[in-house]
Amino acid sequence: MLNMAESGEKGAPKMSKASKKNKKSWRKNVDMTGVNQFLEEKRFEERVGGSFADRPDEKLFTIEKEAKIVPEKRNRKEVKKLRCFANLEGLPGVKDPKPIRNFTLKPEDRENPIVRDMKTKKIKSGKIQKKFVDSKLDRQKFLKTKEANKEEALTRRRTEFDFDLWDTTQDPKLPSPEWIKPEAITHAALGTGKFIPKSAKSREISTGTNLPAVEVPDAGASYNPSVGDHQTLLWKAAMVEIEKEKEIQKIERQTTGMFPSKKNAPTEKSYMQEMSEGIVELNADTENTEVEEDADNASEEDSEEDCSVTPGLKPKTRRQKRDKRKRMFEEQKKARERDLKIRDSEVARVKSIKKELHVEELQAIVNQDKKQEALEKKMSGPIKLSNYDYEPQDIEIKLSDELTGNLRNLKQEGSLLEDRFKSLQRRNMIEVRVKQKTVKRLKRK
């Protein structure tokens, strides 16, 4: 029987014109690779369930009804989200740490199965307890009243508003201490939230600001604003962007703008001229004239000093001392007379003094009002609590072509979490913070 070689075998190179006169030479020199490949393909098709050419398209191809989600590649240069935002999104791919959770059993599930079987047998035999019949009738009666009051409940509206829903100034009503002990009143008030400690009654907590916890947004930020309000809000946002652009231009002017351009850059000739300005050989004539003028001035000053000789100090005579004493007494007398005249004149100008005092009082009131206005202005903004200045939140606006007119198609602008975070900074609840970049340093081996 012919023993064929496998398709993977590689023997010695076969000669193109080899002898095939007998079986031995024919087996040795014949090329069986094509036959082996065909047989191998047949065996593979038998293993996988038949020929692919004979199979229908439904078995060979599948139609994907859901699109595959291709994960987006994260840009490494892009700044990561804050940890507080990442916590809101949750952890992807994490299983429930407690798969089997407690749940509330219904009354029929809580009932003993033996007792439940006995009840069902009694009901089937016709023995029904009275409480089951009554409960069924009560249930039917309740459903009827509910159906009858359904339309009334839909149209029911409050017509009198004689109270303030958000009023918190009302004192909590506690029982009278005439017939209840104070310990019992305190114990009952702790559970209802009506108990106020003594220290909390007089406590004043202030953060140095007058801003409300939740500020009313601008009228132009509505989903369906008027034209005037919307244009006003757009103008405010435009002014903010103009100020930012001015700040950028100022930095550009004070850094890059201070240096000359390539066209006006100093050349080698101008550099040499600037460096050689202080050399004596180049400016010899001008310096010689300056030296001669200095010498003339010095000689004139020396001659003046020789001529002006200070005389020696001589003691004063008795006559000089007497005249000095006399002049002193006369000056004192004139000063007393001058003070007396001033007092007499002040008595005559009482009205003008009153006017001056009135003007000073008015000026003091004006200064006090200015200080109060400055304090209120300071309390209407954030106080610097850290090394960083407060940066206001960007104004959330919608352009004219983005206004929808209804809440269904409205696209969200901004973040509620960021708005609350900025509000805490404005109200001095937390300090202004900046995200710190951590630099990984390789440890020395």
Q: Give the number of DSSP strands.
A: 0
Give helix and strand order, one letter per element, not per position.
HHHHHHHHHHHHHHHH
Q: What low-confidence regions span 5 or more consecutive residues with pLDDT below 50?
A: 1-11
User: Major β-sheet, in short?
Assistant: none
Q: How much beta, percentage-wise?
A: under 5%
Structural class: mainly alpha
Average pLDDT figure: 81
Give the N-terminus to C-terminus distance in angstroms. Answer: 72 Å
Rg, Cα atoms, Å:
52 Å
Helix content: 40-55%
Q: Categorize the overall geometry.
A: flat
The total count of helices amounts to 16
List keywords for this structure.
445 residues; mainly alpha; 16 helices; 0% strand
Could you characterize the architecture of this molecule?
With 445 residues, the chain is mostly helical. The protein is 50% helix and 0% strand. The chain is flat. Residues 1-11 have low confidence and may be disordered.
